[in-house]
Amino acid sequence: MTRAYTTDTIVAVATPPGRGGIGVVRLSGPASASIGRTLLGSLPSPRRAARRPILDSTGEQLDSGLAIWSPAPASFTGEDVLEMHAHGSPVVLDLIVAACIALGARQARPGEFTERAFLNDRMDLAQAEAVADLIDANTAVAARAALRSMEGEFSARVQALAAALGDLRIYVEAAIDFTDEELDLLSNAGVASQLDRLQEGFAALAASAEQGRLLQEGATVVIAGRPNAGKSSLLNALAGHDAAIVTPTPGTTRDVLRERIDLDGLAVWLLDTAGLRDSDDPIEAEGMRRARHELDRADHVLYVVDTHDVVARDGIDMDLSTLPHGTSVTVVLNKVDIAAIDSLSGVAVSATTQRGLDDLRAAIKEALGFRPGEEGILSARRRHLETLRRARAHVSNAVMNLSTHDATELVAEELRLAHDVLGEITGRTSSDDLLGQIFSRFCIGK
Questions:
Q1: What are the start-end ranges of the E strands in 130-245?
Q2: More confident residue, 19 or 402
Q3: Residue 411 in 3-state DSSP?
Q4: What's the rounded Cα separation, in Å, for the pair 398 and 392?
Q5: Three-state DSSP class for 94?
Q6: Neighbours of 51 (CB within 10 A)
């Protein structure tokens, strides 16, 4: 897989925008060496940092810093790569980039360095996506999962399934080729057994990938309920600090307040919302509209009930019926330090005394399907899960067709389709449109 623009030399600032102690300008492409000699005077030894003056195209010094030269193919992109580590002034870094462009480079697009690494077979597509996941990781657990995928663990498991599919395809297609010799190969119980093992392999990989998707994307949990149910107090208790204003006046919360917490490595955005009730106050009505909007998009809802309020206790079922259809909900029975919960069903807590918060955290993780502590969680994305689902469906079709000798060709075809679909994860069979969508979400300079 090659593209014409990979013959260009690209340049970008590889460190975050803003001032800092160090800023990195990265070059990749065939003109990197000549540009480097002009700007630095001479290139350092390969893969060794050396101090150099950094000049512009006219010979005027812009800065002094470290240079690292990585000639092809032993570089991140597989091309000649030069990195210049200068002082982290945005002005200085922009001047260095401008000098590179004046000497024939062009500004890199978002993710283009990693895209070139993929196109030059330095990594596959799943590994390339894991680079972005590592950069965006919100927790230590998510970072470790991204690193495992970046190092190739996810790809290796995908490739193992692909190899098993390929071996079985050879066997099935042999049954088609030797029908004249009456070799009833498909009646062999070993074929059914191999298909069963394939399905188990897909299920195990999908389960691990789902955990990785949760780590990579995080989850949104909306705290909802009637006014004065203790929603803001619950947000503060889960966050561990006073993030929301708490008063005894109903309707204090008017806008949506967001706070991120870490649940055993899972990044969860908690959203405190306005109390749900009938109101003629236009500001409060707007707050409730925003609350309803967030409820429509939530991964999970904590519906908080003031157990000291008899009307609220009696209206739980009615209140839950007003939530969007299919919403995943945990009923939180708040203020149990001053009221008995009797036969009410839910997680009993006291946001004031923090009683029951560990039970609530466990309930959130269970509702989201997150199982912390599992070994081998791999960074993954929704597209990986969807691809695994499609490939697995083809294997299931092969299982159904196996029982009919007349459907031998269909068995082989379903296995071929499963093999091709699986290749979309690593990029073996990915379209240019898909690649463009993936790399466009990367930061510039990576």
A1: 219-225
A2: 19
A3: helix
A4: 10
A5: helix
A6: 11
C-alpha dihedral sign at 340, 343, 349, 351: negative
- Give the model's pLDDT for residue 183: 47
Edge-first strand order for the sheet with 266-272 is 257-263, 266-272, 219-225, 300-306, 329-334, 347-348
**Residue 259 CB neighbours (<10 A):** 18
106-107, strands of its sheet edge to edge: 50-55, 61-70, 81-88, 20-28, 10-13, 106-107
**What is the C-alpha R_g of the chain?**
29
Strands 266-272 and 219-225: parallel
| Model confidence pLDDT, tens digit, residues 204-250 | 999 888 888 888 888 999 998 888 888 888 988 998 877 655 556 55
DSSP labels, 264-287: TTEEEEEEE-PPPS----HHHHHH
What mean pLDDT comes out for the span 179-189? 53
> pLDDT tens, 349-408?
988 888 999 999 999 999 998 987 766 788 888 899 999 999 999 999 988 887 776 577
User: How many Å is the maximal CA-CA distance in the chain?
Assistant: 86
Helix axes 357-368, 231-239, angle to 10 degrees: 90
Query: Under the phi-then-psi rule, with left for phi > 0, alpha for psi from -120 to 50, and beta for the rest, what region is 251?
Result: left
Q: How many CB atoms lie within 10 A of CB 7?
A: 11
Q: What is the mean pLDDT of the chain?
A: 86
pLDDT tens, residue by residue, 79-95: 999 999 999 999 999 99
Which residue's structure tokens are 């009797």?
342
Q: Which residues pair with 10 in a beta bridge?
A: 28, 106
Residue 360's contacts (CB-CB under 8 Å, 6 or more residues apart) are 238, 302, 330, 332, 347, 349
For residues 36-59, give the mean pLDDT: 95
Q: Which residues contact 442 (CB under 8 A, 6 or more apart)?
A: 110, 111, 114, 115, 131, 132
Q: H or E stretch including 333?
A: strand 329-334
Q: Count Cβ atoms within 10 A of the Cβ of residue 231 and give its class: 0-12 exposed, 13-18 middle, 19 or more buried.
A: buried
Residue 241: partners with Cβ closer than 8 Å, 6 or more residues away = none
Please state, in angstroms and rounded to a whole number, the distance separating the CA atoms of residues 96 and 76. Answer: 21
